[in-house]
Design brief:
- The complex is a heterotrimer of chains A (46), B (160) and C (329).
- Chain A has two helices and no strands.
- With 46 residues, chain A is mainly alpha-helical.
- Chain B is of the alpha+beta class.
- Chain B has one helix and eleven strands, in the order αβββββββββββ.
- In chain B, the strands form two sheets. In chain B, strands 1, 2, 3, 4, 6 and 9 form a six-stranded mixed sheet that branches.
- In chain C, helix 3 packs antiparallel against helix 4 and helix 3 runs antiparallel to helix 6.
- Chain C starts with a helix and ends in a 7-residue tail after the last helix.
- The chains are: A mainly alpha (46), B alpha+beta (160), C mainly alpha (329).
- At the B-C interface, helix 1, strand 1, strand 8 and strand 9 of B face helix 7, helix 8, helix 9 and helix 10 of C.
């Protein structure tokens, strides 16, 4: 699995997926932000 | 299975966020006591009118309990008894509710009070009513042709 | 280039798939129109003829869009992708699918008739003790049993493929369709037992009352997995069809399969999160099922990454030069 060849290939791929990394983390931050807003509404009510 | 290292970062971050969300909710539920209505108490729904406390719906002052008032509510198509309740703001209240016929909802708009009233079961919720104002109580479970007219009002009033 | 050579779905199988599509889109038209009528009625300036009520129209809307459109579309879509990727169905398998289709159509007609007669104004969730006419419940049973037959045909075609191609990886779309069908079998056991053991005998007067909590628990055991049954065909298109259309390739075949298996497993024990405000379930069990519900998010996180990666890999200059866009395969 972790052959030298594949490792090398993975690192090359890394630069090719920068946009993917930013996109998913953008999505993640949106999910966390909406969760925080909803939770603060819940916590502020009786 | 081969995972790209960015995907490992993403799945670790995402799963970590889920764990944090669940821990926060879990602490709220089991340490702070912020639980959904789960009394697990049953009742013969065909005899609701004869069984205490539902034989006398309305607000009652109680002593020696963790709460000062009990608000007993009986729902049936398409109204709540009582139609209106006036409560001193800041009171700790236990709402005790059930239904005589089909499934109804008991949602106090703008608050976390939201219970399903199911025939054969008693729904309970304890809370401190700490804001003045009029709070509309709505049925949020479809219960028949008059469903959208089913409502009542909780008025939270200050000291006079 | 004619349509047949692009689609490469056996023409007899295509007829089965298209029959499902016709009913599905008819249901979409009817259900959508009912949605419009609801707005008109709610506005207070419009009254329906023949004393048809708001909730009657709402029930048609829910049953047509939530149950009929989805089941027919998904079964037709999956039948087509299995035929396209695993090869044409055998005569027996196709016959099972046709019987399933007609049973579903008969069931839909029965349920729709009872709703129009105002004998089943119970919304598409049909919570007891609101009671519908027994023909409504029997109609819905036929829809489910019919869909089982169409699903069985897909599983049978998959098994046949496996026997003929020992040791090889199955076609991705066939695998995904089979996973979704299996999820459907597992999920519908809940609603089938609710209807057959409780609602149907109760509406026929054979039993006096039903336990509302049990009917609702069985309903939501089905009702939440139902949502994934709707979702997975979209994921099939995203994982397997979009790469073909944009001239790219799937990010990872094995990750796609893993995410489908996770959906199958995690979709089972999550129904209680639709019952959080109910009095009869303890807070511990509610919390446990919320935790399990969160698990289902993980395969969706995987899918999000795969989608972005698939698009990005295609859009990088190297890939672009190698595989210029061709909209027709």
């Amino acid at each position: 699995m972790a052959s030298e060849k594949r490792k090398h290939k993975t690192e090359d791929e890394g630069d090719q997926l920068k946009g993917t990394l930013y996109s998913v983390f953008g999505l993640g931050i949106f999910i966390i932000a909406t969760w925080l807003v909803v939770f603060s509404i819940f916590a502020g009510r009786f | 299975m081969h995972l790209h290292r960015y995907e490992k970062w993403w799945l670790t971050f995402g799963t970590g966020a889920l764990v944090v969300f669940l821990v926060v909710i879990g602490i709220g539920a089991f340490h702070q006591g912020d639980q959904p209505p789960s009394s697990v108490k049953t009742i013969n729904y065909e005899q609701v009118d004869k069984i205490a406390p539902f034989n006398e719906p309305g607000l009652k002052k109680v002593a020696g309990k963790e709460w000062e008032y009990e608000l007993v509510v009986v729902a049936s198509a398409f109204y709540y008894a009582p139609v209106e309740a006036e409560i001193l703001v800041g009171s700790r209240v236990k709402i005790i509710a059930t239904t005589k016929d089909v499934v109804h909802g008991f949602e106090v708009a703008g608050t976390n009070i939201n219970m399903m009233l199911e025939p054969g079961y008693i729904s309970e919720y304890v809370t401190t009513l700490n804001k003045t104002g009029e709070f509309l109580v709505l049925c949020n479970e479809y219960c028949g042709t008059g469903h959208h007219t089913m409502k009542s009002m909780i008025k939270l009033v200050g000291d006079e | 280039m004619n349509t047949q050579s692009i689609l490469r779905v056996n023409h007899k199988d295509a007829r089965v798939a298209m029959a499902h599509m016709y009913v599905a889109f008819l249901a979409l038209a009817v259900g959508g129109l009912m949605g419009l009528l609801q707005v008109f009625v709610r506005s207070g300036r419009f009254e329906l003829p023949a004393n048809i009520g708001y909730y009657q129209v709402l029930t048609v809307h829910g049953v047509m869009l939530g149950l009929v459109l989805t089941t027919f579309f998904i079964m037709g879509f999956q039948y087509a992708v299995v035929s396209r990727t695993a090869g044409a169905f055998s005569a027996k398998q196709r016959m099972a699918a046709w019987i399933g289709f007609w049973l579903m159509t008969l069931g839909t007609t029965m349920a729709a008739t009872m709703i129009l007669l105002n004998e089943a104004t119970v919304l598409y969730t049909f919570y007891a003790p609101l009671q519908a006419h027994w023909i409504f419940y029997l109609g819905l049973t036929f829809v489910v049993v019919g869909s089982w037959l169409v699903g069985f045909a897909q599983v049978a075609r998959y098994v046949q493929w496996r026997k003929a191609n020992k040791g090889q990886t199955s076609p991705l779309l066939t695998f995904m369709a089979v996973v979704n069908s299996v999820m459907w079998f597992v999920a519908t056991l809940g609603v089938a037992s609710e209807v057959l053991l409780q609602l149907l005998p109760w509406s026929l007067g054979l039993i006096a009352r039903v336990d509302v909590l049990i009917t609702r628990t069985l309903f939501w055991y089905f009702g939440h997995a139902l949502v994934y049954f709707w979702l997975l065909p979209a994921y099939m298109a995203w994982y397997a069809i979009v790469p073909k259309i944009i001239g790219g390739k799937i990010f990872s075949d094995s990750l796609a399969r893993l995410s489908f298996i996770l959906f199958l497993l995690f979709s089972i024990p999550v129904g209680f999160h639709h019952q959080l405000t109910e009095p009869g379930i303890s807070a511990f069990w509610k919390f446990l099922q919320v935790v399990l519900t969160f698990m289902v998010i993980i395969p969706s996180l995987m899918t999000a990454f795969s989608m972005f990666a698939m698009f990005e890999t295609r859009a990088r200059p190297g890939a672009w030069r190698k595989r210029p866009v061709r909209l027709v395969p």
